[in-house]
Amino acid sequence: MFSDKEVFKKEFIETLEYTSxxxxxxxxxxxxxxxxxxxxxxxxxxxxxxxxKTYQQSGEKQVYYFSMEFLLGRLLxxxxxxxxxxxxxxxxxxxxxxxxxAIVEQEHDAGLGNGGLGRLAACFLDSIASLQLPxxxxxxxxxxxxxxxxxxxxxxxxxxxxxxKEDYVWEVRRTDRSVHVxxxxxVEMNQDNGELTFEHKNYETVLAxxxxxxxxxxxxxxxxTLRLWSAEPVITGYDMYTSDRENYYKFLNYKRSxxxxxxxxxxxxxxxxxxxxxxxxxxxLVSAGLQSILQSYKRKIKASLRDLPEKIVxxxxxxxxxxxxxxxxxxxxxxxxxxWEDAWRITTQTCAYTNxxxxxxxxxxxxxxxxxxxxxxxxxxxxxxxxxxxRDLWLKYPGEYNRISELAIIADExxxxxxxxxxxxxxxxxxxxxxxxxxxxxxxNNFYQVYPEKFNNKTNGITHRRWLMSxxxxxxxxxxxxxxxxxxxxxxxxxxxxxxxxxSSFQEKVSQVKLDNKIALAKYIKAQTGIVVDEHSIFDVQxxxxxxxxxxxxxxxxxxxxxxxxxxxxxxxIVPRTFIFGAKAAPSYFFAKEIIKLINTVANVVNNDPHIQxxxxxxxxxxxxxSIAEKIIPAADVSEQxxxxxxxxxxxxxxxxxxxxxxxxxTLDGANVEICDMVGRDNIFxxxxxxxxxxxxxxxxxxxxRSIYNNDPRVRTVLxxxxxxxxxxxxxxxxxxxxxxxxxxxxxxxxxxxxxYVETHQKxxxxxxxxxxxVKKSIVNIAHSGKFSSDRTIGEYATDIWGIRPVIIK
Length: 810
Ligand code: 26W
Hints:
By secondary structure, the chain is of the alpha/beta class. Helix 23 links the parallel strand 21 (about 575-580) and strand 22 (about 615-620). The longest helix has 30 residues, at about 30-60. Bound molecules: ligand 26W. The site of ligand 26W has 21 residues, from helix 6. Its EC number is 2.4.1.1.
């Protein structure tokens, strides 16, 4: 159908007429987007059907990736890229006088995730399909994605992200695959021929309706499925058209309360909040997803459920979908008649779990009372799992009450979801070497002693198709000119670029692309904020969620210090810098919001001070998300990855920047450690405490932030400026930051790492002056970035955890 551009053009015009009843002259950009989207969707449908059929016939094992978040961003361009039709479409549209980028920009980001964890899930889906692996996503179709961030007077304001305002061209509603999910009520136990049976009564039923999104593999015929569930009321007609007023209002309340379940994504990825609605979302996802998987298993696979572990894997993305463990037990025992022992064997051989954070405040622990009320049968099962687990522990560790209560799944009136996930899974993995070591040696050491064989590492990755080929096509094309096309399917081949690190002509091309990308970003910045930035300045970027441990504050303090130096000596010889930030704070995270205001306040002072001769600029780009990242990352010179060592499980932004030739300034945290191992100390700027030092301080004390304040005049000046209205702000505006550092002893070691950070930034400045050396380092980074393609990560999951193999789709 897209074999050549003439065919494409003809069909484009026809589809436009069909979908919008308009001619090309009359069509709005959104009409054009819908036209192209519809064409691509129907273009993949044959392969989609074919993929489903082939998997079924092959009988191969399949993975289901359960996640409360899939941060997909836009799909039009990446689908065209994966289908290898981007060029034909571009040329065809050019002929028609239509700019492809303008069409692509019409798509509203699917922002069904908060940050790292959700974007990782999206990169994984892309890699699973591109490696021809039988694997699907299972998530929630939130009506509202992550809030839209507006800045008003430097403060974050949250607006609802009503992303479904226009029809979503990629989804297909599958009413025929709807299932029922039950909440509340009570459980009656009966004896049936000497067997205990359980009957769930007086529950409330929710209709779960799936919407399927095709996940298109790269240059193969694979089209996997992301199934997103939407909550709807069960309508009998009787309730709705009843003449009884009271009944009618009851029905309206019921309808409204059901629809709330898939209404919005929880916008907090740092602090656990034991909200009932969130637990409802989690069970809704798990129950609907599992029922539909088992229904199709029974329909298509002739095997017994006894063989489930040979046929499917259920992957638990962080603890949010951990209820899949008791839900599978429930179905096997209550509905399929398995014994507890058999059901437990099946369940624990089918589930696998990934941990994404060691922050204690993010650990999910549900109050028993809430859990029991909402999920009475599931609670009984969790209780039984806990009892049997504790009994086993007692045999292993007789008399060790403390150890057993630390390991227990239920304790202190709470259900500990991480414990449930570990006990119920055959595999537990961390997301970077350091993170997994910390899990094994510290955070989960007690579990590691019980189940050493379950623990393994899978260092995160990112899809090089979106983050290099699609976001930075010029760089991708120069790479191909230099080393050929093999890197596209074997990203490790990027290592071939090492040969070109000193090649002047290649260096020039890489520098020119960077400059072009910076010019484009400068234009975007001007349009968004009105701020004019110098494209020859160093673009120094920190974009990620706002969190105290990620230390955006350290970055601001460094900017304030630089500014103070320039105020003292406007002729100070520094390479001009543009500091770029992008970050959303959780709406209830006041400290994080104060940091956003601080960044904007400092920006306002710095950007408007004529004395410093434009040597510094500070930009905060509003509403950071996937599509904005695609503009920013290719234009970055410096990538800020400065979390307090031991706190960032992996980071994935670090990989995206590296792949686009930015040099990292970072701590030895998360995957930075492995990036450093790959590129070598000459090609990365490492500073700060090591994780060991940080963890030692946490265990043994010995750090006094105030003594740094007392002894380092730079630090004192910066902190005092927070309180003296220096930034033209209200004097108490930043008091929480000031007290957090001085009275709460600087939990994240901002002051401790300050000196080394400033010093390391001076090295960045000096290095940048030698452009040849800089671009050489940049090329070395790109060359080593192949390791961080999610194709490598998914290859490892497939062989080491999932035990799945590629299935070729003809
Ligand atoms: C309170 C609810 C909550 C808690 C934690 C929601 C979401 C989370 C996530 C686990 C936080 C998260 O996104 N973690 C990030 O996962 C990335 C992918 O593995 C890592 O690269 C990041 O380092 C990690 O912070």
